[in-house]
């Protein structure tokens, strides 16, 4: 096992990338963004009422092949609502990977529920289905079609796989696990717009899913997110509770349950519509870049570049170097050197079970995730880098 | 006591207003909105990083005379954070008017706390301080500098007055009540940007306050809000928890408490900056319209138009007709007729204690609010209407 030759790594990356500073993921706003935004401002419809919200929702449903999309202020809000809509309540546990952005866990706590951390695997960088099954077999008991954690006594209500960096998780196995243990499956598809598992867009596998259109995502609205579902009843409720749960009336203000103000302003939706018009180009360009990384970095010893599984099609949102296990001690040196050289790079998130506020949450053994955390380095992945 | 002559009312309103349909409150986006938004799109900075967020926060602090403003996705989020930041936790009670938009109560529930409904008075359309004092005297007990509800056993943590339609509440008395009963004072200033109490901008009277920049507000950002405070420590914490509580680091993702993604995108802040540049004009124009309503409708018997108290300066966000008590039975007829005539009008919100999800919350007797609810009709108040 040889260590990573850092100057060689830098030199190949510099060869792939344009001269100058390369960000991790920059938005590309060169389509109709300005045109549609101008339309909003000139018509006065910048706010919640307006046609771009409807259009964006239609186009998202069409693109993902799902029945309904409900756009919201951001991916965190989308996840919060997804969990509410499948019935997560106070004191429930929700199974989530420890290796995810903190928003996944935060959304669980917004419901008064408790994150229960699950391990990840190298194949998908997402939840390890085999280990999860064995773990649930051991610690759960099913009573009246509900799953209980024998150790804490709490109900385990939902399972939230996340498609890490846009790479589809092994969702088919997770669907089976959700069925076996009577768990609601909620996909955190924040990073996986444009990613497919066996030809089906991510988000289609559970009852409901969340997207993010944050500034660093493949499609951005400044800030934004969406709830995706194939269940029309849930879609109706999603629209209702994200818009203050107001009952339509000529003038009366009657709200029939505790709602949220999670609606996406029309002006942000306008940007989203323009972005979606270019998503095929974004995906093609990002795939070109990913293939260059995979191809050219195969010459560097001591690391590999993550490649989609053969039945998956990744959006390659963030390209990922995986250090060989023996070289994890080089991670921070590589990060420092790449960043110094204007090649923006970062490690994966700190495992959530190590954060102060989540350190006492229930969890399985998390060796897979802990090791991955030391091995992952994300490298520049903007659309425009694929153009070179 | 004479009843309202509806044809006369319509005819005077038509004389004041331009020909055609008149909305309740339309945004005015004729300043630098398009210029700044274009700048965001052309520079690629539509998202959370970007200079308009900082600039908008500075300008808001300057305009309101407060030390710090922290902009967020909307007024509801701002209120939620205000309550968290003054220490409202699960099972606390929070005193709020029953006559407010539902978001005030919802924000309380997001903290796991319980709204406790308070009566309103005709003078300010906001909380009745005299009645509140008498009520708290009766039902509370102070233990170790904390206020407890003797009837429920729960702690009463905060008092949230709201400046209805931009008209300043009798805040001086409420400040005294908050002190007397050891309550945190949080101002719901969602509607009162540009409103002053004895020359001091609303929002300055408690520890923290919330603004809204929803599409119908005096200044809009599509959707948006702000937290205002004179306490620098709270301001720092507000910024931290509204931006996922991430600790600054070159690359590590460490979050030190449960945070929120409540940040306002740069593109929405850009609109806000342009809007604030014109606020003096907005306020002047709205005041002209209000004065016309007050003046001309004094000829209509059986109703009055709400006028700011002599020590207050209202932004006249929404102009308000108050039916004489004997004429409340005419409310729906007037609403129907005005709306039919293209003069958009609406009643005040349905009192929150009458909504299904809040009907079992603690409350004082609410006769003042219940009567006001039957008497109030809001009439068109857009900036451009003052130009005629
Ligand atoms: C896995 C994951 N979940 C949730 C989110 C939350 O999305 P947002 O930032 O739009 O709130 C993100 C993105 O930031 C994410 O990467
Ligand atoms: C009194 C009051 N509080 C809170 C809010 C919530 O603000 P937003 O709609 O921006 O969430 C509003 C405005 O809608 C309001 O009028």
Automatic annotation (TrEMBL), chains A, B:
One GO term (biological process): polysaccharide biosynthetic process
GO MF annotations, alphabetized: pyridoxal phosphate binding; transaminase activity
Keywords tagged on the record: Aminotransferase, Pyridoxal phosphate, Transferase
Transferase is among the record's keywords: yes
Keyword Transmembrane: no
Known cofactor(s): pyridoxal 5'-phosphate
SUPFAM superfamilies, per the entry: PLP-dependent transferases
Active site: 217
A Pfam family it matches: DegT_DnrJ_EryC1
In-chain residues carrying the UniProt-annotated modification N6-(pyridoxal phosphate)lysine: 217
Gene3D superfamilies: Aspartate Aminotransferase, domain 1, Type I PLP-dependent aspartate aminotransferase-like (Major domain)
Family: Belongs to the DegT/DnrJ/EryC1 family.
Protein name according to UniProt: LegC family aminotransferase
């Amino acid at each position: 096992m040889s260590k990573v030759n850092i100057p060689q790594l830098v030199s190949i990356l510099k060869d792939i990338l344009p001269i100058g500073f390369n960000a991790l993921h920059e938005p590309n706003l060169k389509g109709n963004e300005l045109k549609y935004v101008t339309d909003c401002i000139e018509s006065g419809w910048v706010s919640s009422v307006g046609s771009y919200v409807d259009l964006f929702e239609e186009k998202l449903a069409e693109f993902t092949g799902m029945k309904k999309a409900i756009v919201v202020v951001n991916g965190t809000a989308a996840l919060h609502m997804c969990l509410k809509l499948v019935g997560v309540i106070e004191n429930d546990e929700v199974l989530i990977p420890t290796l995810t952005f903190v928003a996944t866990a935060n959304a669980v706590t917004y419901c008064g529920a408790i994150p229960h951390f699950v391990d990840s695997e190298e194949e998908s960088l997402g939840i390890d289905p085999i280990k999860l099954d064995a773990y649930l077999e051991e610690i759960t008991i099913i009573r009246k079609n509900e799953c209980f954690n024998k150790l804490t006594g709490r109900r385990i209500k939902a399972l939230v796989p996340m498609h890490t960096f846009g790479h589809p998780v092994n969702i088919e196995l997770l669907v089976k696990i959700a069925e076996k243990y009577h768990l609601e499956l909620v996909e955190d598809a924040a990073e996986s717009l444009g990613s497919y598992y066996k030809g089906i867009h991510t988000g289609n596998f559970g009852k409901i899913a969340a997207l993010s259109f944050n500034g660093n995502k493949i499609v951005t609205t400044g800030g934004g997110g969406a709830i995706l579902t194939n269940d029309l009843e849930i879609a109706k409720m999603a629209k209702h509770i994200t818009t203050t749960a107001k009952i339509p009336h000529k003038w009366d203000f009657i709200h029939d349950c505790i709602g949220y103000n999670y609606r996406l302003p029309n002006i942000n939706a306008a940007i989203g519509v323009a972005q979606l018009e270019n998503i095929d180009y974004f995906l093609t360009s990002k795939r070109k870049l990913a293939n260059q990384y995979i191809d050219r970095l195969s010459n560097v010893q001591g690391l590999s570049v993550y490649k989609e599984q053969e039945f998956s099609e990744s959006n390659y949102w963030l390209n990922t170097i995986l250090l060989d296990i023996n070289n994890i001690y080089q991670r921070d040196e590589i990060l420092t050197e790449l960043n110094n050289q204007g090649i923006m790079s970062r490690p994966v998130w700190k495992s959530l079970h190590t954060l102060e506020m989540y350190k006492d949450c229930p969890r399985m053994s998390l060796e897979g995730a802990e090791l991955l955390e030391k091995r992952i380095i994300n490298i520049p992945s903007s659309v425009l880098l694929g153009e070179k």
